[in-house]
């Protein structure tokens, strides 16, 4: 699928944010481990979350319903026993990492595998922690990378986790913690990248009845034995996905409103709003929506992005249209995502005439006139959506393999088409 973007100007548009991918993954897992039946309302139905749902079914959890709501018959902290099972998580790193700890609650051997790119994404720090907490770990090919086979139990205990690659390692352990036989103590060293996702994990855990104590982002304690309780839970809107829609006002001028966003969400990518404000946009958050408006010039910024990693590409998409350079730091760990995101963004922006400098943990974009061209997003949904933003700002940009947005925002192109932008 190929999509060509024409230049847009002076917008006055209204969109709806898709449900949060991060919340949907975690709510599916908490509901699957809870005692009783959970009703999950407005979950994100996308490639990644369907991988988590399918894996939980493979572990013996009954999940029924449609895209509007799901009913999850919880396993009360222990999945039913069965034969060894392989979970194919595709290109969903979130699914593979979050489910790794949960796999030790399955009373059977579980192998977690995925796409060729998944086999390049590290899981070693998480597997090392699971070995301390009662698991047995075996790698099929390359040590520290999928496919990885787990067996044993999730006992709990005291463990130190490397936080320099991903916060998902710690989130995985936290989600399994209430179902262990011993209290779980996690020390994270160094302080984790993408730390705000630990806020989402803790929010889901407490919503489902888990008990979590914490000291910032470096020490977490989870009480064992209580498990999770079933509940009626509604998934909030996704700031990461909404960022591409809000960015349209920045690059094209005019006004864009996105509905379905919680104003006090703990999602780290809500930081994107303050970045747009610093760049010269007018940002207004209301009870269930955010409006971004630009009528004047757009300015470059300097921002540390470790708390908001999924909007780095969106800021990179806006930056070429500013009147001064933009420098983003705290981005080195993005090499471990669906693509090596900083390298890919830099190469693709340069192919359209842009000027980009890249360092070990930084990217600097120097405004320059952009021309049209064809972009291969390297199988990365966020790269595809970022270049849709650039295309609507510059015109004449064609995004190949545009269907890759289905990983997190299946309705992205439909919303643009409905707004008359395609």
How does this structure look, described?
The model has no long low-confidence stretch (mean pLDDT 96). The chain has two domains: 200 residues, UDP-n-acetylglucosamine1-carboxyvinyl-transferase, Chain (Alpha-beta prism); 204 residues, UDP-n-acetylglucosamine1-carboxyvinyl-transferase, Chain (Alpha-beta prism), CATH 3.65.10. It starts with a strand and ends with a helix. The protein is globular, with a radius of gyration of 21 Å. The chain has twelve helices and 25 strands. α9 links the parallel β20 and β21. Strands 2-17-19-18 form a four-stranded mixed beta sheet, with helices on one face. The protein has a four-stranded mixed beta sheet with strand order 5-6-4-16, covered by helices on one side. It has a four-stranded mixed beta sheet with strand order 7-8-10-9. The chain is an alpha/beta fold. α4 packs parallel to α5.
């Amino acid at each position: 699928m190929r999509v060509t973007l024409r230049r847009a100007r002076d917008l006055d548009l209204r969109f709806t944010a898709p449900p949060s991918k991060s919340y949907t993954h975690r709510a599916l897992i908490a509901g699957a481990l809870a005692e009783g039946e959970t009703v999950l309302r407005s979950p994100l139905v996308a490639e990644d979350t369907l991988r988590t749902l399918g894996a939980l079914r493979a572990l013996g959890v009954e999940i029924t319903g449609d895209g509007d709501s799901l009913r999850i018959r919880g396993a009360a902290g222990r999945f039913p026993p069965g034969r060894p099972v392989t979970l194919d998580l595709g290109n969903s790193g979130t699914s593979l990492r979050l489910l790794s700890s949960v796999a030790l609650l399955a009373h059977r051997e579980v192998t977690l595998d995925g796409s060729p790119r998944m086999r390049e994404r590290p899981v070693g720090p998480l597997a090392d922690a699971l070995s301390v907490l009662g698991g047995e770990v075996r790698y099929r090919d390359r040590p520290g990378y999928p496919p990885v086979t787990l067996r044993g139990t999730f006992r709990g205990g005291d463990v130190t986790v490397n936080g320099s690659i991903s916060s998902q390692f710690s989130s995985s352990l936290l989600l399994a913690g209430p179902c262990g036989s011993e209290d779980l103590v996690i020390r994270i060293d160094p302080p984790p990248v993408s730390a705000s996702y630990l806020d989402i994990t803790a929010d889901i855990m407490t919503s489902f009845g888990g008990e979590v104590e914490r000291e910032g982002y470096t020490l977490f304690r989870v009480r064992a034995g209580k498990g999770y309780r079933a509940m009626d839970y509604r998934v909030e809107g996704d700031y990461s996905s909404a960022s591409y829609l809000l960015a349209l006002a920045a690059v094209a001028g005019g006004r864009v409103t996105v509905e379905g966003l919680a104003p006090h969400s703990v999602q780290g990518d809500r930081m994107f709003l303050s970045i747009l404000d610093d760049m010269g946009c007018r940002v207004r958050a209301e009870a269930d929506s955010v409006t971004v408006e630009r009528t004047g010039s757009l300015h470059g910024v300097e921002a540390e992005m470790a708390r908001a990693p999924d909007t780095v590409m969106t800021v990179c998409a806006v930056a070429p249209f500013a009147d001064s350079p933009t420098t983003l730091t705290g981005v080195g760990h993005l090499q471990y995502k669906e693509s090596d995101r900083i390298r890919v963004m830099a190469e693709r922006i340069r192919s359209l005439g842009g000027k980009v400098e890249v360092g070990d943990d930084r990217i600097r974009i120097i405004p320059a006139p952009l021309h049209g061209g064809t972009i291969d997003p390297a199988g990365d949904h966020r790269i595809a959506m970022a270049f849709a933003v650039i295309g609507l700002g510059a015109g004449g940009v064609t995004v190949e393999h545009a269907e890759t947005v289905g990983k997190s925002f299946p309705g992205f192109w439909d919303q643009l088409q409905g707004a008359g932008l395609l």
